[in-house]
Structure formats: structure tokens, C-alpha cells
Amino acid sequence: MPYLGSEDAVRELRRALSNPNVQSDQLRYRNTVLKAIRAMSQGVDVSDLFSEMVKACATVDIVQKKLVYVFLCSYATLNPELSLLVINTLRKDCQDPNPMVRSLALRNMTNLRLPSLVEYVEQPLAAGLRDRAACVRRVAVLGWAKLHNLQPDAEIDAAVVNELYGLLRDPDPVVMVNCLRALEEILKKEGGVAINKPITHHLLNRLKESDVWGQCEVLRILQRYHPQSEDELFDILSLLDASLVSPHPPVMAATLGLFLGLCSGLPAVSLAALERVRGPLLAACGSTSRETRFTALCHIQLLLRSLPGLMGAHYKRFFCGYAEPAYIKQRKMQVLVELVNDENVAMLLDELKGYCTDVNPETAQAAISAIGRIGRSYSDRCLEILTGLLGLKQEHITSAVVQTMCDLVWVCPQCSDTVCSALEGCEEMLQDSQGRQALLWLLAAYGERVSSAPYTLEGFIDRVRSEASLGVKMELLTTTMRLFLCRPSETQDMLGRLLHYCIEEEMDMCVRDQALLYYRLLHCGIEETHKVLHGQRSDPSLGVLIGRPAEPINQWAYSFNTLEPLRQAGVETEPASRGSPEHVTFDPKPNTDLSDTLNCSQIEKLGTPISGQLLPFFFAEPLKFHQVGWGASVHSHFQISPEMFNRVQVRALAGPLKDIHRVVPKPLLCYLGCVLRFVVLLEDEPSPQSEVQSALEHVFIQDVSVHCCIHLSLNPD
User: Fold this and answer.
1) What whole-number distance in Å separates Cα of residue 465 and Cα of residue 377?
2) SS3 for 192?
């Protein structure tokens, strides 16, 4: 057929389908139908051919029947009245001696998706459940599920449900699994298929007969069953033992998930099951499928939380291949960090060092971050590698090294001398804002040990007008203030120039307000300024990688064999105790609207009456906490534990400060930032000697990007 426009093509197809000469030639008739299907697949509207295609389905050619049924199912909803003409042909085909024709007719009868045809479909489906051919029974079982989805509010036929339960003992394993799936859909409102002891043992005994998909479906449904005795539990575990080491990763994962659910009260048995799946998991990590490898790596990290030594002897299996995608390399590096010990630390560090020069900057930065995490336990070796990487003079490597050193000195204060000596001259290679912020944080914390710190700051201050990053400007303000307190003669002039620019010329209100805050803080005296700005610079009590206590399996078993480990792909699965306060996650939900954080229900829970004066006192525009993860570039200086910060709510004031006593009564304790007009609300009232009273001095808020000084003297007592 020559190339024509869509309308001309449809007219040509209709003419050909109606031609008696074409209809008499079976091959030409089939090719014409094929052309109509091809046009449909290319987006041409061929719905006008519906009546001609209805006639074309009355044939003995199975190939032509399949093509016609594809067309009819696609356009049935557009031609519901003409679709009635197809039913007679389909019902006739349901009685064909060929089981393939019968199953094809049943499948397409349910695929028409027309509620008006349900009464014509029920009888063939009921007969299909008792058909002698397994392929017909398979289609009939799923047909009842399709019929229920078509009319979900219709009354469930108890006879059909009973017949489906009876087909759970069908000799064909696909029919058995299809029955489970159909019963799950039909009985969804009642909790799904009822699983009792006879059904459970029957399904387990026939588990090996099913294909991979069928085994996974059976194992998923069996998670709802609870053994009635310990003997029955161990009988079930014995039946599952072979599937636990299945060569198919989906079956192995589903079996282990069922194992962990059944053995929630038997930790020793659960640990033994984790040992058993070591081999299949390692095999999955070597799969040709990238998706399978990534999924296996994510689940291995879950297992290492409870069994850290599970893969210790096989750490070489997690070395990165050159052709592997970046996301798999980064996940493997995270696993390698979990497997480090005294015996393999030298080899692992040498391997990670090679990844630091990867052509992919993200992979290189991930390798440097992994070395920094190992440095918590082996600081000398890791610092030697990190210092050597600075000599490469590459921008992304230098930035990652400085950020890693910034994180490392918080946990390992003994590294500070080496880090300070390595900082000399690296500011020229830092082009990204994250690296510059990390460098400024280090200069703020250890500026008295870095001889070139004032000169480095002077370069930043000279370029402040062209600085595009808001975070760098604010970090520069804090760093200059802290360096002024320890080296006043060298930084007095540059601090004055910086404050003058930020107050008089800076257009961003956040930077201007912070500069005003520091300016007025200096008027309170050096001693008061020192109390606010200088806190602890490290916290070695946060622990190291080696020797962390193993987590109970119950803490993560619910997420095994789900998408949850994959959702956490961008977040390193390490306990929250690591890292400095600048890495604390303020809120479990990133970018949470503070209008949701401090809503009426929470105020009522705190015992504060809601009046017409309270909520309007705060600005309506939302403020958001910044969720800071591991390796974040934002470094704030508040000194407060994560546990205590969970009790803090922050809102911007819209009313006069003098009215705060009236609208926020006890038991909420209020600290006011007068310059920035923020209020920090605590759930209870701490004593004057408490952690909050001595440590809550700065609160970092992302959307306003400002360090808000909390004036303790304005306590509304």
C-alpha cells in the first residue's frame, strides 16, 4: 500500500478489508489486518475500521484472530455497542476443540473491559474453571479477578470463591498461583486470601513446582501466616531451607524475608539464616544485570547492620570494575567501608586510593569520603592518603578532601595538626561553594594554628562582592568573627571592611541580618561574643567504625525484600551517632513546612490554649529546617545534641516582641532573637543548669540562612 495520509490510509484499509477478493485469500486478508494493526501502533486513529475488524475475527486462522483481538480490545471502549457483535464469536470460540482458541477467546473476552458485557462473560468463565486444559483454567482464574476489578462494588459470588479455593489444589502449579493472586484481588476488602495450616503446608510442599514468579508470590502471601507451635515453626523452616540458597535472587530474598518474619523471636535462628544466604548474595553481586547487582548490594548493607563480619572474608568481591556504572561503584565503596578491619585496611585503602582519580568526579568524591570514614579508626594512614591527594591539584579532588578533613577533625581531634598543615595554599583550587565553606569552617575552628589564615580570609573578603554563594558569605562572616577573637591584630581591619560591606551594601537580607547580629554582639563585649561563638570544636565520644554494636535484626527486617533499601541509596546507612552537630538531621522529613511542624494539634499537646491571638502572631509564609546529611557542605555552629534539638520549634514573629508573654504562656519556654525576630519554643522548661540553657546559642534555618542568636535574658519568666 503506498504511503498516504492517515485519513486516506484508513479509507484504503476499509476498502481492502471489505474486498471479497481479499477476504477469499487468507494470506492477503491477514496481511491487510496486519497493516491496520501497524497503523494503530503508529498512532493513526483506525477506530472507523471496527465493524470490518469484527467481521475479520470470524476465521479459523489463529494468527489473524490474535491480531483482530488486539484491535478490538484497544477500541472496545470507543465502540461499546458494536462490541456486542464480538461476544457471539468469542462465546463460540470458547467451545472450540482447540484449547489455544478457547484460552484466547476467554482472555480477550475479559480484556474488553465493558461492564455491559459482564453478564455474557460469567458463564464462559465458570465453564473455564472446569476445563480439562490447564491453559484455559489459568486464563479463567485470572478472568474472575479482572471481572471483579471491573465491578469492585458488586457482590462477591461465594460459589466462585469456593471454586477458586478448590483450585488451589489444581495439579498445574500456574493455576494454583493464579488462584492465590485472584483471591487476593477479589477478597482484598476482607484482608486477602485466608491462609491456614493445611493451605500453608500444601503451598510449601508444592513450592518447587512453581516458576520464580510463582514462588515469590507464594512466599509473599505466606508471610501472613503465624505457626501455632514451635514444632510447626521448625517444620516450615525445614521446608524453606532449600529455597534459602536458591540460585534465583528473587526466591532467595523472598525466602529470607519469610524466615526473618517467622523467627522474629529467635535471633539465633535469624543469624544462622543470614549466614546461609551469604553465597547467593555474593552470586547476585556478580550478576550480569546491573539492577540485580545494585539491589543485592543495598540488601547486603542491611545484613551488615546486624552481622558486621558476614562478608569480611569476601571483601575483594566488592572491588569496583572499570566498566561498572557510577552508582554501583559508590554502593560498593560503602560496603567496603563496613568491611574494614586490621587485616585488610591496607589493601582497602590502596584500592580506594585508586578510585580517587576516577574519571567520574562523583565516584572520585565518594572514594575520598569513604577514606575519610575509615579515617575515624585509622586516622594516620588515611590522612597520609588525603594529604597526598591535595598534591594532585585537581579542583573536585581538593574540594572533596577538604570537606572530608572537615568531617574527620570533628571525630578525631588528634588529626587537627596534620589537617591544619595541609590547608596551606589549597584555597586556590577550591572553585565550588561546598569546598570553600568547608575550608572556612576549618579556619574558624583552627585558625590560630594556620599561619596563613588571615591572608586566606583576606582573599575571600576581597572577592566578597563577586561571591555568588549565600552559604559562603555567611560562613565567611562567622569565620572572620571567630578568627578575630583569637588573632585580633591581624583581622581587625578585614572584619571591619566585611561588616561594613554586609551591612551597607549587601542586597541579601539574610547576610545583612547576620552581619548586624555580629555587629551588635561585639557591642556587648569580647567576653560575651566569645561565649556565643566559641564552643567545642570536636567530639571524639561519637565513636569509630570498628566495634560498633550490632543492631537487632527486627529493626530492619520489615524492609528486607522491599524498595526501602533502594530508596536509601543516596543516604549512607550508618548510625546517627557519627559526625558532628553540623551533620545532625534536624527533622526526619526534609523541607518540612513549619506550618505543619508547629500546628494546632501539637500546641494542644503541649498544653498551650489556642486563642485567636496565638497563630496570627507568627508569619504565614513557611520556614523550613534544612536536613543536613553526611558530607553536607553547610557547617553551622550551634552546640546542641540531636535529642535536644528534636524538642525545638522555630517560628518567625509577626507581632511585637512585648506581646510574646501574652500569646505564648507556660509550659513553653521562649528564647527570642530580637534582631531577626524569631522565637524558639521548647516542649518543656529546662533548668538554668540544663543543656539547653548552656548550649542553645545558635539555630540554623535554611530558608533564611542565618545564625540566630538566642538571648537567654529574654526568658518570659
Assistant:
1) 42
2) coil
